[in-house]
Amino acid sequence: MITHEAVSNTILDVNQRFGINSNDRMLLLSSLCFDLSVFDIFGAFQVGAALVLSEDPKNSRALIETI
């Protein structure tokens, strides 16, 4: 089991390393079943960034429209 502290520290580190802040928008592409989705969701929320959801992430035209 991964502790809350470990997840929080990882998210904080990645946000600082890449300079992610409240002015950013992050596109959620990872499946919620994939562990990377934890960063996609909580990484944005931790710094107040916008989390953008695509209506159909498997459709390249829909992704282009979203971007």
TrEMBL record:
Membrane-spanning parts: 27-53
Gene Ontology CC: cytoplasm
Gene3D superfamilies (alphabetical): N-terminal domain of ligase-like
MF-aspect GO terms: ligase activity; phosphopantetheine binding
Keywords per UniProt: Ligase, Membrane, Transmembrane, Transmembrane helix
Domain AMP-dependent synthetase/ligase: 1-65
Pfam families: AMP-binding
Taxonomy, superkingdom: Bacteria
GO biological process terms held by the UniProt record: amino acid activation for nonribosomal peptide biosynthetic process; secondary metabolite biosynthetic process
The protein's name: AMP-dependent synthetase/ligase domain-containing protein
